[in-house]
């Protein structure tokens, strides 16, 4: 059965801010001792930003399904790379419906619209097959225990 959902910019659907912040905080930040309010603040920045950060939300009407963000930098060790797809999260019961791919596609399109020539992400090594299947190219391995991937955009003009 096909899952129906929409991808929206969080700025257009701010009612999902608490859900997005909670999922990202629990997935990556809580265990490091960060406050939920810190993560919520990062999402709030995107509500007024002109370019980045921007968060995208997958939802089925009022049901939160997932999130991803387009941010300036996701790795202090590689400040030369920008922008980044970050904090991809799809609720466990909603996985395998293409929601993660749709969220990533929205972030890629936003980066392309903003004129960036390429976009990056970092992920644990066990996520390699997922990103490789979606045309992400591995460019560095084991940087702060993460792999770095890139997609380059080509305008088609010479």
TrEMBL record:
InterPro entries assigned to the protein according to its UniProt record, in alphabetical order: Acyl_CoA_acyltransferase, GNAT_dom, NAA80
Which EC number(s) does UniProt give? 2.3.-.-
Acyltransferase listed as a keyword: yes
Q: Which PROSITE patterns match?
A: GNAT
Q: In this protein, which residues make up the domain named N-acetyltransferase?
A: 1-158
Q: Which CDD domains has this protein been placed in?
A: NAT_SF (cd04301)
> GO: which molecular function terms?
acyltransferase activity
What keywords does the record list, in alphabetical order?
Acyltransferase, Transferase
At the top level, the lineage of the source is: Bacteria
- This protein is called what? GNAT family N-acetyltransferase
**Source organism:** Pseudochrobactrum kiredjianiae
């Amino acid at each position: 059965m096909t899952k129906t959902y929409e991808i929206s910019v969080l700025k257009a659907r701010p009612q999902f801010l608490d859900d997005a912040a909670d999922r990202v905080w629990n997935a990556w930040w809580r265990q490091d001792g960060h406050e939920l309010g810190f993560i919520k603040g990062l999402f709030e920045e995107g509500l007024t930003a002109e370019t980045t950060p921007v968060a995208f939300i997958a939802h089925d009407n009022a049901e939160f399904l997932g999130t991803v963000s387009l941010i300036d930098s996701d790795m202090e060790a590689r400040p030369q790379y920008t922008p980044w797809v970050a904090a991809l999260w799809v609720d466990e019961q909603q996985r395998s419906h293409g929601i993660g791919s749709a969220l990533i596609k929205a972030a890629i399109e936003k980066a392309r619209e903003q004129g960036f020539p390429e976009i990056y992400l970092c992920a644990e090594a066990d996520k390699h097959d997922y990103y490789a299947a979606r045309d992400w190219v591995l460019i560095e391995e084991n940087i702060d225990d993460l792999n770095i991937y890139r997609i380059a955009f080509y305008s088609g003009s010479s």
